[in-house]
Amino acid sequence: MARMALIPITAETVLDDLMRTYKETIPIFIRRKMMCVGCPVARIHDVREACREHNIPIAEFLDEVNAAIRRRE
Predict the structure, then answer these.
(1) How far is CA 59 from each of CA 1, 5, 40, 51, rounded to the nearest angstrom?
(2) pLDDT tens digit sequence for 1-14
(3) Fewest CB within 10 A of the end CB: N or C in the chain?
(4) 37, 46, 44: which is closest to 10 by C-alpha?
């Protein structure tokens, strides 16, 4: 079985794409009290906007999300 290539998540990644593609990132949103899961705005909101809205350091969030994705292998 071929491995799926992991695409690094960036500040421009749309939240809905992120959570649909990498379901293992959803607990990160919940733990950080980001109510993006199921939010209709997630289809157009990117990581940068969400971090700004929830006052979360973007570099820290991206590190955590990308680490969770890397662990899936």
Answers:
(1) 33, 22, 24, 10
(2) 344 556 789 999 99
(3) N
(4) 46
User: How many domains, in total, are found in the chain?
Assistant: 1
The two tokens of residue 46 are 């990117």
- Report d(CA 1, CA 49) in Å as an integer: 36
Residue 66 has which token pair? 């990308």
32: domain range? Answer: 15-70
DSSP string across 1-57: -PPPPPPPP-TT-BHHHHHHH-GGGHHHHHHTT-TTTT-GGGGT-BHHHHHHHTT--
Considering only residues 2 and 53, tell me which one the structure prediction assigns the higher pLDDT: 53
